[in-house]
Specification:
Elements (H helix, E strand, L loop, with lengths): L5 E4 L6 H7 L3 E4 H6 L7 H10 L2 E5 L2 H9 L4 E3 L2 H13 L2
Parallel strand pairs: 1-2, 1-3, 3-4
Length: 94
């Protein structure tokens, strides 16, 4: 049996954790964890927290994505190119 997926939402997308919770996901926000006393101020701290807690990091930060990639840690990088493609797809549907 597989473990439930745990997701760590980077600070820029705070609030997505709440939306994912409503959909049944086990999601946490860097911003809320920081407010609760976790020391998550640097890329290293955030990535290390995700690693220690078997989480997938969702981030827009290219450096965090590259660090995860270099260290074989699961991540989803929401880069500007992907976001732009979504915008263009939506515009083409109008």
């Amino acid at each position: 049996m597989s473990k439930p997926i745990k997701i760590l939402i980077d600070e820029m997308d705070d609030g997505w954790d709440d939306r994912l919770h409503k959909m049944g996901y086990n999601a946490y926000s860097v911003k809320k964890l920081r407010t609760n006393g976790h020391k998550l101020r640097t890329y290293y701290s955030v990535i290390n927290f995700a690693k220690e807690n078997d989480m997938i990091l969702v981030t827009r930060d290219t450096e965090s994505g590259q660090a995860c990639e270099e260290n074989n840690l699961p991540f989803i990088l929401l880069d500007n190119d992907k976001i732009f493609k979504i915008v263009v797809e939506k515009l083409n549907q109008i």
